[in-house]
Structures are given as structure tokens and as C-alpha cells.
């Protein structure tokens, strides 16, 4: 599938699961992201990338907010827990069509939804989209070694640890490893 083959209507980009819906991000969703960006606990698990304490909403939108995507190359979704609670963002980026690989990222900002499988369901929806509609053969991500909950969630989706970059992350003054994880299409298919 080439970029020109991918439909551009919003319905194409809405992915439905049992408990979550991945839908295009709309302007009002950024208010949630701004709130999460200012939450120290949320940012700690996001590799300790803390926003400046005086960050304005306009600065958040300009520098921290998830970017508008280019379907087929990069795209971003808002994670909505049914019926209508915005709980996070998920997306794909750095698509390499020649090789057939893409990177993914996810963040659940609503702490009441942590550790309950919502992120795992959202990731599974995105993986199904990328391996079928997107025709990718490899999906990869990275996280930091201190985020064991995320690592377990990714492994439950089929990702395998492929490498470790020593002292590549620094969270609150402590060095951690960057954990590189990957999932191949045939591995994902075997789990379906």
C-alpha cells in the first residue's frame, strides 16, 4: 500500500476495540494532553521528560503536543475509553516504506486507567492496523528500563526485547537503559 492508496476520510482512521476507540485527535483533546504534561507522575513514566513549570497551553501545542500526522508515514490517535473518556494518545511515526518498518508510541495520561489493560488494547488495535492496512512487516518502540509496567504490556502484545542501550536515559538524576523492542508481522499473525 502506498501513501496515495490510503483513504483520507476520518472514518478510516477510527479504530474500534471492546473498551477503547482510537480516533483522530481533535483540538479539544489537547487540553487533556496539556494537563498530563504538567502532571509530574505522568511525566515520570514518560521517561522523565518534564515540562517547564510555567508552560502555557500555546507553548504545549507548539512544542509538546502530538503532531498532525501524514497517514501512511505518521499518524496520531486519541485513545478514548468507552463511552467517551479521553485517556491518552497513541501513534506511529518514522515509517520506512522501503524496509517496511515503523515506530510506535503510546501514553496513557489518565491515571485511573493505568494497569487495567486499556493501553494494551489500544496497542493491539494499532498493531492490527499497521500490519494489515499499513502493510508494515516490522513495528518497533523503545522505553526506559525503569518502566517495567510498560515493558510487560508491550511483551503481552508480542514485542520482544531486541537490545539495550546502556545509560541512554536519565530520569530524576538516575541513569537507565533504553530498551529497544520489536515485533514482526509473522509473530503478530501467530498470536491472532
Structure description:
With 192 residues, the protein is of the alpha+beta class. The chain has one domain: 3-Layer(aba) Sandwich (Aminopeptidase), CATH 3.40.630. It is 28% helix and 33% strand. It contains six helices and eight strands; from the N terminus they run E-E-H-H-H-E-E-E-H-E-H-E-E-H. An eight-stranded mixed β-sheet has the order 1-2-3-4-5-6-8-7, with helices on both faces. The longest helix has 16 residues. The N terminus is likely disordered.
Largest sheet: number of strands, sense, barrel closure: 8 strands, mixed
Element order: H for helix, E for strand: EEHHHEEEHEHEEH
Number of strands: 8
Give helix % range.
Answer: 25-40%
Assigned CATH class: Alpha Beta
Level-2 CATH architecture: 3-Layer(aba) Sandwich
In the sheet with the most strands, the strands line up as: 1-2-3-4-5-6-8-7
Note the total helix count.
Answer: 6
CATH superfamily: Gcn5-related N-acetyltransferase (GNAT)
- Mean pLDDT equals 89
Q: Kindly report how far apart the N and C termini lie.
A: 22 Å
CATH topology: Aminopeptidase
- SS-derived structural category: alpha+beta
Strand content: 25-35%
- State Rg: 16 Å
Count of all domains = 1
Shape: globular
**Which residue ranges are poorly predicted, with pLDDT under 50 across at least 5 consecutive positions?**
1-11
